[in-house]
């Protein structure tokens, strides 16, 4: 083990008996207190409270897990509160079964159920009998005859979604991640950076890391011209289809591995909270047989089957809602910028990732380690979610990061008494780059901008207050000016490439008439025949009525103002287009880069995006579903900011700044992997570490099911 060892406390039989006796005694006392405090609740004899406490204990031990099998959806969507309502019915039945007990309110039984869970939680904390201690006891019991010497060391990969390398370094330095800081200061682990693909988002990164391939994944969502639909990696059907296309059975978790909270399975035998494995919405013909995999909702059931967990989750969730409301109010009072609206149901939705999913994933990983599974990969999404809405290093975002670090500490302690030795590796799928949103900065979304340039008819403004007030002013990035002044201003401010593009299309005269739009498709057009899809700092423009990848020359003829205006726009860094003459070309304000030959004219538009930008962009250009025009937001190295096309403060999805640098913390004994560029290369590094520990290499099979060969 590379982790610092501490003996920990292992639950003993005597402590278990003490817990049972104390819970029974305290529940008895609580019933006596409630008898005096609650109206409509009375116990007339001395023997009734201890008997009721005994029966309630049996109900909690036996009845609660059965209730949770039925009420799991209610427990999740109500953060555990709904399960207490159902449990209250059982409490009420017990009170009615005891002669002489008077109950006139269903609410009383619910209060008793909550009080019981609270008492059990407090006593468990006092006796250090929490879920960690239970895990330690069970792990010690199972590990006694496990023959640890015959097992290769296991690895638990913990992904902190969206945490960039630079932010991770500062968080370690400033005390926001004390667990990782302790590893680094003890010199047992190393903190490194790795470079993402052009599409710096979870879909492309996890497909590469877990499946070993992210070929063809051009964004978090993209337009499939052949089927006239937008593909999204967060849609179960699409995630399953993407995994089917990229899985050869030899994923990172092939064999007896486990995946928790991910987009893809990595060919694991045990998965939960994984998008591509949601069989309830994925057709049987489009997924592989997964007989050994956990049933849908198994992770939630295992966690919420413990009433103490349900009560704790409810309490922590309420605290997190308060923190979100307070943080949003604090930003408004201080006029912190950039910022986005954080009202509506977001405070309630946020706790799903920062509290509920986090706790369920940790509980599932604990069980995986208890079962001695060789490799586990789990995703913590809370930081990414809050950074989107608050900022990448705002105080409330770092609080969420600290809570994730605490859970990593729990898992590190649990690893010490698992049936096999475990190494912990922490990493991220990408970083985030901060900045004011494109719409707020320029007065229109990128979809509106493209639609306007492609001939969309502006909608009539709606009058406010039943027509009594004039229409709201249309937000537009253009400033009113005389026509000649506008022309002069455009000419003076136009960059080299914009001027050349305008010169190329001006002799052609009037633009050709656009092909009439056929039957309306499933995807909204921003202009006739034009579709725009957005993934953070990346936007895709597709011309739905033209087959194949539409070349630069055709775009110039049909939409002559589109490319010149886009390359000149202050919020756009560069465009990728396909030229019939030169192949893939990157266009910027003051230069172009021909990817096929490497020729640069003027200033290299990729210069601000790192030495690997050209290769990464060229790779995407070779994808089958590469959009007709790919737009990357402009990154300003001076401010370290870029304006995302989505309404987020911290965002990602393309090149530019911290979003393209994930972090990797691994045991020093694993060795230096060198520079890692792209998720597929990171997969090979992680797979190599597993092989070095003695894990068998999975074989590629046409059936998509991994077969493991013995070592050697």
Secondary structure layout:
Blueprint: H1 13-37, E1 41-43, H2 48-77, H3 81-97, E2 101-103, H4 106-126, H5 131-143, E3 154-160, H6 165-174, H7 178-185, E4 189-195, H8 202-211, E5 221-224, E6 229-232, H9 236-246, E7 258-260, E8 270-272, H10 298-304, H11 307-334, H12 346-370, E9 375-380, H13 382-390, H14 395-415, E10 422-427, E11 433-434, H15 438-442, H16 446-453, H17 483-493, H18 496-505, E12 530-535, E13 538-543, H19 552-558, H20 562-568, E14 572-579, E15 583-587, E16 591-594, E17 600-602, H21 613-621, E18 629-633, E19 635-636, E20 641-642, E21 650-651, E22 661-667, H22 679-692, E23 698-699, E24 707-708
Parallel strand pairs: 3-9, 3-10, 7-8, 7-9
Antiparallel strand pairs: 1-2, 4-22, 5-6, 10-22, 11-21, 12-13, 13-18, 14-15, 14-18, 15-16, 16-17, 19-20, 23-24
Helix pairs in contact: 1-2, 1-4, 2-3, 3-4, 4-11, 5-12, 8-22, 10-12, 11-12, 12-13, 12-14, 13-14, 18-20
Describe this structure as you would to a colleague.
- This protein is α+β, with helices and mostly antiparallel strands and 712 residues long.
- Helices cover 43% and strands 14% of the residues.
- The strands form 7 sheets. A 7-stranded mixed beta sheet has the order 4-22-10-3-9-7-8, sandwiched between helices. It has a 7-stranded antiparallel beta sheet with strand order 12-13-18-14-15-16-17, with helices on both faces. A two-stranded antiparallel sheet has the order 1-2.
- The longest helix is centred in the N-terminal third of the chain and has 30 residues, at 48-77.
- It is elongated.
- The model is unreliable at 1-13, 142-148, 279-292, 473-493, 508-521 and 702-712 (pLDDT under 50).
């Amino acid at each position: 083990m590379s982790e610092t060892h501490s003996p920990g406390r292992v639950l003993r039989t005597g402590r278990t008996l003490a817990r049972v006796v104390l819970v029974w005694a305290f529940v008895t006392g609580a019933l006596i207190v409630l008898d005096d405090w609650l109206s409509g609740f009375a116990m007339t004899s001395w023997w009734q409270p201890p008997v009721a406490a005994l029966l309630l204990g049996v109900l909690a031990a036996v009845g609660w897990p059965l209730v949770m099998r039925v009420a799991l959806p209610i427990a999740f969507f109500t953060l555990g509160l709904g399960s207490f309502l159902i449990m209250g019915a059982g409490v009420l039945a017990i009170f009615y079964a005891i002669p002489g007990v008077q109950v006139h309110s269903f609410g009383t039984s619910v209060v008793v159920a909550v009080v019981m869970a609270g008492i059990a939680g407090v006593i468990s904390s006092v006796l250090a009998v929490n879920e960690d201690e239970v895990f330690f006891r069970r792990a010690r019991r199972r590990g006694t005859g496990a023959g640890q010497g015959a097992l290769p060391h296991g690895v638990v990969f913990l992904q902190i979604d969206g945490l960039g390398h630079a932010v991770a370094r500062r968080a370690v330095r400033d005390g926001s991640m004390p667990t990782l800081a302790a590893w680094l200061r003890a010199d047992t682990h190393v903190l490194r950076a790795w470079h993402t693909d052009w599409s710096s988002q979870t879909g492309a990164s996890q497909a590469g890391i877990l499946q070993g391939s992210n070929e063809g994944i051009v964004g978090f969502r993209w337009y499939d011209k052949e089927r006239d639909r937008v593909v999204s990696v967060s849609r179960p059907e699409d995630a399953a289809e993407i995994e089917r296309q990229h899985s050869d059975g030899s994923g990172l978790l092939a064999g007896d591995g486990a995946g928790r909270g991910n987009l893809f399975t990595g060919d694991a035998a045990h998965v939960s909270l994984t998008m591509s494995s949601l069989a309830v919405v994925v057709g049987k013909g489009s997924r592989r047989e997964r007989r050994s995999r956990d049933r849908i909702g198994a992770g939630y059931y295992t966690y919420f089957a413990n009433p103490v967990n349900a009560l704790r989750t409810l309490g922590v969730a309420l605290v997190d809602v308060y923190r979100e409301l307070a943080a949003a109010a604090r930003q408004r009072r201080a006029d912190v910028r950039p910022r986005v609206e954080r009202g509506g149901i977001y405070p309630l939705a946020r706790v799903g990732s920062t509290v509920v999913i986090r706790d369920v994933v940790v509980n599932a990983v604990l069980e995986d380690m208890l079962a001695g599974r060789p490799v586990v990969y789990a995703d913590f999404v809370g930081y990414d979610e809050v950074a989107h809405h608050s900022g990448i290093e705002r105080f409330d975002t770092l609080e969420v990061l600290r809570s994730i670090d605490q859970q990593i500490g729990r898992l590190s302690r649990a690893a010490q008494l698992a049936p096999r030795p475990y190494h912990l590796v922490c990493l991220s799928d990408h970083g985030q780059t901060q900045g004011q949103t494109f719409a707020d900065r320029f007065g229109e979304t990128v979809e509106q901008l493209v639609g306007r340039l492609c001939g969309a008819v502006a909608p009539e403004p709606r009058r406010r207050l039943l027509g009594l007030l004039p229409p709201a002013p249309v937000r537009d990035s253009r400033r009113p000016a005389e026509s000649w002044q506008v022309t002069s201003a455009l000419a003076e401010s136009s960059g080299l490439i914009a001027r050349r593009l305008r010169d190329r299309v001006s002799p052609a005269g009037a633009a050709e008439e656009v092909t009439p739009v056929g039957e309306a498709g499933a995807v909204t057009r921003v202009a006739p025949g034009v579709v725009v899809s957005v993934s953070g700092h990346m936007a895709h423009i597709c011309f739905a009525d033209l087959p194949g990848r539409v070349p630069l020359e055709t775009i110039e003829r049909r939409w002559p103002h589109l490319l010149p205006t886009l390359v000149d726009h202050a919020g756009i860094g560069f465009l990728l287009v396909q030229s019939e003459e030169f192949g893939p070309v990157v266009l910027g304000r003051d230069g172009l880069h021909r990817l096929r030959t490497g020729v640069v004219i003027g200033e290299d538009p990729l210069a601000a995006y790192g030495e690997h930008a050209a290769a990464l962009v060229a790779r995407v250009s070779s994808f089958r579903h590469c959009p007709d025009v790919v737009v990357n937001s402009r990154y300003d190295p001076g401010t370290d900011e870029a304006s995302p096309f989505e309404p987020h403060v911290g965002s990602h999805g393309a090149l530019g700044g911290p979003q393209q640098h994930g972090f990797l913390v691994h045991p020093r004994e694993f060795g230096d992997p060198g520079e890692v560029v792209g998720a597929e290369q990171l997969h090979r590094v992680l797979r190599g570490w597993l092989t070095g520990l003695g894990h068998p290499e999975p074989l590629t099979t046409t059936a998509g099911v991994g077969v493991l060969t013995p070592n050697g």
